[in-house]
Write a structure and sequence with these properties.
mainly alpha, Arp2/3 complex 21 kDa subunit ARPC3, cell membrane
Length: 346
């Protein structure tokens, strides 16, 4: 677990340095959920986290490279889930989740561990989410997102779907499952005497304009990453049980081109809006989660650690740059250098 925390705490925060502008609220902020509901979601998340840690330890005993891989995936999930993407059609910003690709590569239980580490760092140092609501955020993004993506990917592969198609649908539904679960958590926690289902569907409907296109974008991104790994490192995917051992590393070229084109098209459409200098894009969790909570008397509280300015933020960014360079080098070695060694040996 030390390596997971090291890689995530350093290299993952590098993604935040790339975002020119204030961060957006992520998932359920501090103080929105009543204490009882917050405790319930911690109780739901705890067994998944415990099983995930045990799974990491089991796999690490058989493969010494597994923990660094988990740490790298934590960095990937952190960066992806901190990346605010403007959606002009909705007038808001939101973020992908990254749990689809994590679940495909390392399994859903390990993905829960990865998500917990990423969310904890975000809550402590980037004012994203909250400590009291960490359990709820882990359940929505880590448990629901990871297991939805994993089950869909495995199920579609067994039904004969191609690697790119299965990964696309897995990334898409992992994103949507996260926000459906967030809507369930929010409606359950703040409804008071109000009926559950009308409030639940109200929150879901508010998420749709933003997360519908972003889910498609995340699906394309997930498919592109899986296909790239299949082309460059089929041995790595075979070792993780994603593809059959001995498969060709050439990969589906047509699927690669299609997914890359779809990703670029959607990305260009989503970012084709006013610049941040002329207009600020509010986060979808601010416009939906915090707005609904405020309507029901649950105002978000200030984060425990304020890193909006000052030396602490500078220290975090310097640390991110230092350790992030190491993570980038590790990823390059895993994807390129070890691939060459693999080719030479085969």
């Amino acid at each position: 677990m030390k390596r997971i925390t090291l890689y995530a705490a350093g290299s993952a925060i590098l993604g935040a340095t790339l975002l020119a502008g204030p961060a957006h609220a992520m998932h359920i902020s501090e103080g929105i959920l009543p204490l009882g509901w917050a405790a319930l979601w911690f109780a739901v998340a705890a067994p998944f986290l415990a099983l995930g840690i045990r799974r990491v330890n089991e796999l690490s005993r058989h493969d010494l490279s597994f923990k660094p891989l988990v740490g790298l995936m934590a960095a990937v999930v952190f960066i992806i889930s901190c990346m605010p993407i403007p959606v002009p059609t909705a007038g808001t910003c939101s973020h992908p989740c990254g749990t689809g690709i994590a679940a495909i590569l390392v399994g859903p239980l390990v993905s829960v561990v990865i998500t917990t580490v990423a969310l904890l760092i975000q809550a402590l140092f980037l004012a994203h989410g909250g400590i009291s609501t960490l359990g709820a955020d882990v359940v929505s993004m880590g448990v629901a997102g990871s297991f939805a993506g994993w089950f869909v990917f495995r199920g579609m592969r067994r039904l004969g779907a191609g690697l790119a198609v299965a990964a696309f649908v897995a990334g898409l539904l992992a994103d949507w499952a996260t926000y459906l679960t967030t809507a369930l958590e929010l409606a359950s926690g703040v409804r008071g005497s109000e009926p559950f289902y009308p409030l639940f569907f109200k929150v879901v409907a508010a998420f749709v304009p933003t997360q519908l296109p972003l889910g498609v974008l995340e699906g394309a991104m997930t498919a592109g990453m899986v296909v790239l790994l299949h082309r460059k490192r089929p041995d790595l995917l075979a070792k993780m049980g994603v593809v059959d051992a001995g498969g060709s590393g050439a990969g589906p070229r047509r699927a690669t081109v299609v997914m890359l084109a779809l990703f670029c098209l959607l990305a260009s459409l989503l970012v084709a809006g006013p610049s941040r200098a002329s207009e600020k894009w509010p986060g979808v969790d601010e416009t939906v989660v915090e707005k609904v909570a405020a309507e029901h008397g649950r105002e978000p509280r200030a984060p425990l650690i304020n890193t909006d300015q000052g030396d602490l933020l500078l220290f975090v960014f310097l640390l991110a740059g230092t350790v992030g360079g190491f993570a980038a080098g590790y990823f390059w070695r895993m994807l390129v250098a070890e691939r060459r060694t693999y080719d030479d040996n085969t």
